[in-house]
Structure formats: structure tokens, C-alpha cells
Specification:
The protein is α+β, with helices and mostly antiparallel strands. 33% of the residues lie in helices and 30% in strands. The strands form 3 sheets. Strands 10-9-14-13-12-11 form a 6-stranded mixed beta sheet. This is VOC family protein. Keywords: Metal-binding.
């Protein structure tokens, strides 16, 4: 009887596991079908209502540096449209202005003539309350600038100390018409990205417009940049290393290794210090350098004076505006 009972339990466990796998596969399949059917690519724009379109456009343009683009209206709204969209029957025509807000979604600004809707902003915890967050490279500089324009800052910038958003700084501010918006910055990435290097989170900082100058196509200058890159990785003096880091790398440089992604100069500097601490007698030496436009390949070896090639590999650089913007590291596998 005991043997039969054990076999029965084993069958039940196997059946349960099989059913769970089926459910997981079915859920994944449904999600894939939904994404494919909807055909959604991403967020195109965010719509907000304002009491005065001209003042709102002036704020977005003059203070935040955004570009007003398309405009529609004033468009009279019929009774049926107002009913379907929960608009007061006495409210007048709508005028719509699209604001190009840099990298990412645009902002669609609505002004209703003779507006009979609520004039009170929703509280933060009200259903329907929302805000727009703008990425900045230096949040403290951005706050200082907004204050100089008499923009109300709500509190002080706060940096998340741990968890998925570790390394992210944020602060809220108010527009002249009372809407709450946000500044956010994470120049060295977030905790989630470091814990899940294969997962790439979209960020406007990663799509910031880059300009390749004529100097970026100069093979001699790019070779010099790569030589200075090697000096950084061999430099033990912290002050000299930091000076070279700022000279050679862009502030939001990204280094992609097979095991992790380092974002920003600080991340890379920490990794260099750890590498030097673990291998105090090792140094990098170049084997060859190849350039093509603003792309450079450096073949290197790493080891001691007696054994200079304990590790070898290749670094691929993307150079923009005279600095390394992307660095891809390939380490040769030992047979």
C-alpha cells in the first residue's frame, strides 16, 4: 500500500507540473498574440489639459526648451462627441498644440474655450491624477535653473538608496498652471539594470541625439583616444585616472561586458579599481589597433611582466564628439 501511495503522489506531482507548464505556455502565448494583434510599438505622446494654451506653450518653450510643432483648431465639438467623452455640454471648441519634448513622447496640450469642466487639479492620490517625468543629466543643476525661473520645486532631489531604482534621483515641480511634473536622473544606471544586465530598459538618455564630428572620423585622433584608454586602465593614481576618465569617456559612457553593463564614468572607475586590486602586478598592453570612421577595435593582452598575456581580448569603441560613447568588451575564451 505504501508503494502504491508513493507512486500515486508522484503521478499527481508530475501531472501538476505538466499542467503548470501548459498554463505558463498558454499565458505567454496569449501575451504574444495580444502584442502582435494590437501592433503597439510604444508611447507616441501624452495629452494634458491647460487653462491657457499660450502661457503653457511659452513655459514649455522658454523655460523647458521644448519645441511647439503642430496645431489643430479651434475645433467645435458636437453634442454626441461631448457625451461620449464626458465633456460638459456647455464647453466650447478645443485647440490642440503638439510639443516636441526632445527624445521620447511628445506632449499634446489641450485648451477648451469657455471651459465648464472642473478647474481644480486632482489631488495626488485621486484616480486620474498623473504627472510627466523629464530626464536630466544633472538634477541639481536642473533644479537650480528652474528655481532661477521662479518654478516651484516640491521638496529636494532624493536619490534611491537600494532596490530596483537604486541610483535614481528625482524631484517634483509645479507648472505655472499648477500641474505636477518631475525631474529624474540616473547617469550611472539603475539597480534593476545592474542586477539584470540582459534586460535593457528604455531611457531618453540612451537615445539622446549624438553628432559625429569630422574629428571623430580622424584615425590618428581616435588611435590617441584608445591609447589614453589603456593609460586609464593601467593608472594607479586616482587623481590622474579620474582626469583621464573625464578626458576620454563621455559622462554617460556605457561599457558592455559579457557579464555586466557599466553605465557612466563612476561605474567604470569602480570596476578598474577592483581589477587593479585583484591583479596588482598586471597591466594592459596593446597588440593592434584598427579604425574605421568613428569605430575603433583594440586588441589587447593583460598580465604580468613575466606572463604578459594571461588574458587577451578585443575592445570595440564608438567615438562621438571626441569621446568614447560606447565600449564593448570581448574577452578571448581559454581552450
Amino acid at each position: 500500500m505504501k508503494t502504491t501511495h508513493k507512486k500515486s503522489n508522484k503521478k499527481l506531482q508530475t501531472s501538476a507540473a505538466a499542467m503548470l507548464n501548459v498554463l505558463i505556455l498558454f499565458s505567454a502565448s496569449e501575451k504574444t498574440v495580444a502584442q502582435t494583434s494590437a501592433g503597439i510599438v510604444g508611447i507616441d505622446h501624452v495629452g494634458i489639459n491647460v487653462p491657457d494654451l499660450k502661457k503653457a506653450v511659452t513655459f514649455f518653450n522658454d523655460v523647458l526648451g521644448f519645441t511647439p510643432v503642430t496645431q489643430l483648431g479651434p475645433i467645435p465639438l458636437d453634442a454626441e462627441w461631448k457625451k461620449l467623452n464626458h465633456i460638459n455640454p456647455e464647453t466650447g471648441a478645443v485647440t490642440i498644440k503638439m510639443i516636441n519634448a526632445g527624445n521620447g513622447a511628445s506632449i499634446e496640450v489641450f485648451e477648451y474655450a469657455d471651459n465648464k469642466g472642473s478647474k481644480t487639479h486632482p489631488n495626488t492620490d485621486d484616480i486620474g491624477a498623473s504627472h510627466i517625468a523629464f530626464y536630466v543629466n544633472d538634477i541639481h543643476a536642473a533644479v537650480k535653473y528652474l528655481k532661477s525661473k521662479d518654478v516651484k520645486i516640491i521638496g529636494e532631489p532624493f536619490t534611491m538608496p537600494s532596490g530596483d531604482t537604486a541610483g535614481e534621483s528625482w524631484v517634483y515641480f509645479e507648472t505655472p498652471w499648477g500641474s505636477k511634473m518631475e525631474l529624474v536622473s540616473y547617469p550611472n544606471g539603475k539597480g534593476y539594470e545592474k542586477a539584470h544586465p540582459k534586460t535593457i530598459l528604455w531611457s531618453p538618455k540612451n537615445t539622446e541625439a549624438k553628432k559625429v564630428s569630422a574629428d571623430d572620423l580622424d584615425a590618428k585622433k581616435n588611435t590617441l583616444i584608445v591609447e589614453n584608454h589603456l593609460k586609464i586602465w593601467n593608472e594607479k593614481d586616482e587623481t590622474k585616472r579620474k582626469a583621464l576618465l573625464n578626458q576620454v569617456y563621455a559622462s554617460n559612457v556605457e561599457m558592455v561586458d559579457r557579464h555586466f553593463i557599466a553605465e557612466g564614468i563612476e561605474d567604470i572607475s569602480k570596476f578598474i579599481v577592483e581589477l587593479q586590486t585583484k591583479n596588482p602586478d598586471f597591466k594592459f598592453t596593446p597588440k593592434s589597433v584598427e579604425t574605421s570612421h568613428n569605430i575603433v577595435r583594440l586588441y589587447w593582452q593583460f598580465g604580468s611582466k613575466e606572463k604578459p598575456s594571461v588574458v587577451s581580448g578585443m575592445d570595440l569603441f564608438v567615438i562621438e564628439n571626441g569621446k568614447v560613447q560606447k565600449l564593448y568588451v570581448f574577452v578571448d575564451q581559454k581552450e
